[in-house]
């Protein structure tokens, strides 16, 4: 049994429930929210879009019954949204919730979005357009792997956690490194902004084999629930950054005839495992996290 001791807590407290994909954050957070009689803010940037319900494993209407969720399906894939906008929106909601709640839960697997709420986003410099066009041209002619090799040399810390298939994040990091002659990591973590609430960080974790099994089972369940049909409907918009994510990219390639459905499913499972590993690398770097097994019984003292 895990005891989360919130007894004698006087300050308003944000409880972060982080962890890799498929670890069980949704069920854990809902159970805790019901015990604490509070609401949930999602920090899973993949679940912001109303058109990508199945492929992002967004909380179902049944799961959300009895617990109000914020930032789930509140955007369209056509909307422009970034982490800075999310930070501002989340703080507005938290300010209102803390007028009536002692605790609020923030949950998700997007470490950058969690850190934005907890610590703030550093203001990065505007990038010279000539540099941006030069790097984009190199991406087109030399390929992403060459640029990834450069990023590893310029900023190995960020190289370890970046989504290595998300070329926009790789390009952004290289832009900052070249323009400022500093690491992207150092500019993103210069100083934490002061928040007017306490923060408790919890990271859910499972043994690797167990987590991998959950990833495989959830992928199969998504496909049974219509993931492929969802991807077919979104295929005309596959160029959008909101759809540049694990699962959809592989299904788009299948729909495009690049490989078989069997190979596509295996690729989704492989890339999801790699994504989960990168998520854990991110969370382990922060020593404030308490690591818990989500399958243990939860006991709260409030």
Question: How is this structure best described in words?
Answer:
The protein has 302 residues and is α/β, with parallel strands linked by helices. The chain has 3 domains: 2-122 and 194-206 and 289-301, P-loop containing nucleotide triphosphate hydrolases (Rossmann fold, 3-Layer(aba) Sandwich), CATH 3.40.50; 129-188, Histone, subunit A; 209-278, Helix Hairpins, CATH 1.10.287. It has 12 helices and 8 strands. α4 crosses α7. The mean pLDDT is 91.
How would you describe this structure in keywords?
302 residues; Rossmann fold; 3 domains; 8 strands; 47% helix; globular
The rounded Rg comes to: 20 Å
Question: For the record, what is the CATH homologous superfamily label of the largest domain?
Answer: P-loop containing nucleotide triphosphate hydrolases
What is the second-level CATH architecture of the largest domain? 3-Layer(aba) Sandwich
Q: What count of structural domains?
A: 3
Spatial order of the strands forming the largest sheet? 4-3-5-2-6-7
**β-strand number:** 8
Coarse structural class:
alpha/beta
Oligomer: single chain
Secondary-structure element pattern, one letter each: EEHEEHEHHHHHHEHHHHEE
Uncertain spans, ≥5 residues at pLDDT below 50? none
Which bin fits the share of residues in helices? 40-55%
What is the CATH first-level class name of the largest domain? Alpha Beta
Count of helical regions: 12
Q: Into which percentage range does the β-strand content fall?
A: 5-15%
Q: Using the coordinates shown, work out and report the CATH topology of the largest domain.
A: Rossmann fold
- Compute the average pLDDT: 91
Main sheet overview? 6 strands, parallel
């Amino acid at each position: 049994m895990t005891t989360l001791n919130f007894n004698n807590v006087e300050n308003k407290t944000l409880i972060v429930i982080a962890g890799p994909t498929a670890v069980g954050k949704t069920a854990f957070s809902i159970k805790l929210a019901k015990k604490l009689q509070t609401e949930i803010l999602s920090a899973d940037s993949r679940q912001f879009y109303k058109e990508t319900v199945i492929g992002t494993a967004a909380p179902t209407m049944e799961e959300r019954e009895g617990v109000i969720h914020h930032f789930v399906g509140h955007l369209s894939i056509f909307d422009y949204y970034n982490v800075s906008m999310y930070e501002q929106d989340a703080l507005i909601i938290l300010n209102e919730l803390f007028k009536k709640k002692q605790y609020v839960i923030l949950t998700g697997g997007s470490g950058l979005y969690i850190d934005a709420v907890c610590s703030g986003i550093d203001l990065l410099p505007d990038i010279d357009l000539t540099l941006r066009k030069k790097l984009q041209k190199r991406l087109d002619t030399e390929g992403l792997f060459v640029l990834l090799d450069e990023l590893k040399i310029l900023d190995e810390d960020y190289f370890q956690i970046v989504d290595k298939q998300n070329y926009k994040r790789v390009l952004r990091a290289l832009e900052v490194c070249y323009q400022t002659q500093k690491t992207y990591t150092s500019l993103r973590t210069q100083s934490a902004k002061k928040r007017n609430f306490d923060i408790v960080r919890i990271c859910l974790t499972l043994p690797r084999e167990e987590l991998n099994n959950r990833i495989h089972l959830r992928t199969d369940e998504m496909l049974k629930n219509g993931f492929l049909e969802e991807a077919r409907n979104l295929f005309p918009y596959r160029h959008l950054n909101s759809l540049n994510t694990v699962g959809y990219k592989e299904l788009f390639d299948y729909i495009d005839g690049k490989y078989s459905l069997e190979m596509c499913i295996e690729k989704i499972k492989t890339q999801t495992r790699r994504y989960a590993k990168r998520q854990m690398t991110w969370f382990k770097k922060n020593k404030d996290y308490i690591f818990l097994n989500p399958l243990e019984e939860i006991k709260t003292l409030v």
